[in-house]
């Protein structure tokens, strides 16, 4: 039986996707993801002498560390996993990401495959790390604000990612994404997910909001449309199915960011056929493991997880501490990578969507999407750090 994940390089060799079994100092804003309810507080992450930078790597350190890890994996015979990665440039480019973005130059040099998982309803493979846009992409569209976001959206598919999660309730985010995608010309390289929450006011209001999303995103379809926080769920699901039949969305689903909605969420999961669900899930917020994630596996639903850094709690708890040596054996260089590897190594989770507005954080987050992945024993050891 094949593993529950494959790399994108390996996916080209699969004749049938359905056979994939689903069984210094740097300031870091915390997790993010699809939900816009609260912003995470900045956390300072110090370099410990003789140890790895914690939290998130800064621009120069991130590049050299990634290059070292990738070279090591390649030497150990994991060439298929890291093809194209050993040529990572000096990473000083990340310190001037804004200037490079303005000049239209690529700052990545990183093109190796990430671990990918199948969408159960179709078998389509998605890289396990995407980006969330709540708050981060809600900007006024000045060039100073747009430059790093442009770099993030340009580099995401180059680095092997695809999923961009947004919502009309995320302020100006859909408009900014639409403008940047159109300018970059990379809409077809991205898996675009958004939501509808206006269904609470009736079907017509929900439809108008969905149409507005397409207009703001400057596209004739999205890849995933979800009912946001169960708002008008029973009324809106027939509309989402109609849009899917018409090609205006490829997949449908629902989201919640509130544990108090879990009972109703489970009821809908048990009674409706959905492609995706989206829930909060972090190494220090594992309530979704009790019912939601096992049920998603049983029902054949893909899972997007937002707030994978627990609204910044992961960084606050370990501020000033290096990542444990045993975690570094998994290629984990930062607490962000540890938190993300824990989330995406759950077999039920398809993609994690940490809020991402800075190129260096994109690099760091995507670093968690490369093998090896922790086994159950190691995942338990990870979780114990937060108990």
TrEMBL record:
CDD domains documented for this protein: AKR_PA4992-like
Species in which this protein is naturally found: Orrella marina
One Pfam family linked to the record: Aldo_ket_red
InterPro entries recorded: AKR2_Oxidoreductase, NAD(P)_OxRdtase_dom_sf, NADP_OxRdtase_dom
Name of the protein in its database record: Aldo/keto reductase
Stretches assigned to the NADP-dependent oxidoreductase domain: 129-377
Highest taxon in the source lineage: Bacteria
């Amino acid at each position: 039986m094949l593993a529950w994940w494959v790399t994108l390089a390996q996916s080209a060799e699969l004749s049938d996707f359905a056979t994939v079994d689903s069984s210094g100092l740097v300031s870091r804003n915390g997790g993010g993801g699809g939900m816009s309810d609260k912003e995470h507080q900045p956390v300072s992450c110090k370099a410990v002498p003789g140890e790895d930078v914690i939290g998130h790597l800064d621009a120069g350190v991130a590049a050299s560390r990634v290059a070292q890890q990738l070279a090591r994996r390649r030497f150990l015979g994991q060439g298929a996993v890291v093809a194209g990665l050993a040529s990572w440039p000096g990473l000083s480019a990340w310190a001037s990401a804004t200037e490079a973005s303005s000049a239209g130059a690529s700052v990545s040099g990183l093109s190796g495959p990430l671990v990918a998982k199948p969408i159960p309803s179709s078998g389509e493979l998605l890289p396990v790390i995407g980006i969330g846009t709540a708050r981060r992409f809600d900007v006024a569209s000045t060039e100073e604000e747009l430059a790093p976001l442009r770099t993030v959206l340009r580099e995401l598919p180059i680095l092997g990612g695809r999923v961009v999660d947004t919502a009309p309730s995320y302020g100006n985010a859909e408009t900014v994404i639409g403008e940047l995608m159109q300018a970059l010309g990379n809409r077809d390289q991205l898996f675009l997910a958004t939501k509808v929450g206006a269904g609470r006011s009736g079907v017509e209001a929900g439809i108008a909001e969905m149409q507005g999303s397409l207009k703001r995103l400057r596209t004739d379809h999205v890849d995933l449309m979800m009912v946001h926080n169960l708002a008008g769920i029973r009324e809106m699901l027939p509309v989402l199915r109609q849009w899917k039949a018409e090609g205006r969305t490829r997949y449908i689903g629902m989201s919640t960011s509130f544990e108090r909605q879990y009972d109703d969420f489970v009821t809908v999961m048990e009674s409706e056929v959905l492609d995706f669900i989206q829930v909060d899930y972090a190494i220090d917020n594992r309530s979704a493991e009790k019912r939601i994630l096992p049920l998603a596996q049983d029902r054949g639903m893909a899972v997007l997880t937002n707030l994978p850094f627990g609204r910044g709690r992961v960084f606050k708890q370990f501020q000033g501490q290096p990542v444990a040596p045993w975690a570094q054996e998994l290629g984990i260089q930062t607490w962000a990578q540890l938190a993300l590897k824990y989330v995406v190594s759950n077999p039920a989770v398809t993609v994690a969507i940490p809020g991402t507005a800075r190129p260096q954080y994109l690099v760091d987050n995507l670093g968690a999407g490369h093998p090896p992945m922790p086994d159950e024993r190691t995942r338990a050891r990870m979780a114990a750090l937060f108990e």
